[in-house]
Amino acid sequence: MEDELFQQLMYVLNQLVSWVAAGAMVFGGVVPYIPQYRDIRRTQNAEGFSIYVCLVLLVANILRIFFRFGRYFETPLLWQSIIMIITMLIMLNLCTNVRVATELNTKRRSFIATDSKDEELKIPKKLFLDFDLNYFWLWSRFVDYLLCVLSFTAVAAYVTYLLLDSILFVETLGFLAVFTEAMLGVPQLYCNYQNKSTEGMSIKMVCMWTSGDTFKTGYFLVTQAPVQFWICGLLQVCVDFAILFQVYYYSRYPQKPASHTAHPTSAKAL
Fold this sequence. Notes:
Layout (H helix, E strand, L loop, with lengths): L1 H26 L5 H11 L8 H19 L4 H28 L39 H22 L3 H16 L3 H10 L7 H20 L4 H26 L18
Helix pairs in contact: 1-4, 2-4, 3-4, 3-5, 3-6, 6-9, 7-9, 8-9
């Protein structure tokens, strides 16, 4: 009787730990962006957050979802991608509204063709799409970002449908998904190196990224996720620790910083 009670207790504890870990896996990735969202709303200034972060995470998580059609992985990882996509769209909506409100005299850009009568946004008439690389992902309306994401999703879905039977394609798709996300911190690492300083970068944010990426990589290893997941997870942790080393090094051995504009808060910027 005591053995059965002990086994039941251990089973309940094991299930509880599994649920907590799964919940942390699903929602942990979006936590670092909550203070950034609140800060942008409070200050009505989105310059400290690079919207290219949203682009990278949207691409990475959309590809990860399609990867699951060819190679099964844990359901919490699927929900993590869905929650992250929703979060990045919310961030894009906020940043776009703030930027347009503070740049009233700036020439407006659009992803799709627009009517020349749109005087409110003053968007120049285009024959089809505005693919000026200098203004890509710098559009003036949230709907343009949404249409771009939907277009990318449709193309990725079509290609995946055609090549889903190819093992090489499926494995490459999975690698691209996690590798894109793993490289998210590299631009910040390079930016710090160029400036010879980590001024303007939130250390708390980096610590949250590091703890989250470490937990995520451990989760990949424990649940025996596809090899692409944990290899790129380890790479992401290494990048995070490299940024933390920069914080230590430039605070201990100050360098002459290059002239740049510092922001009180920052996210992984591209």
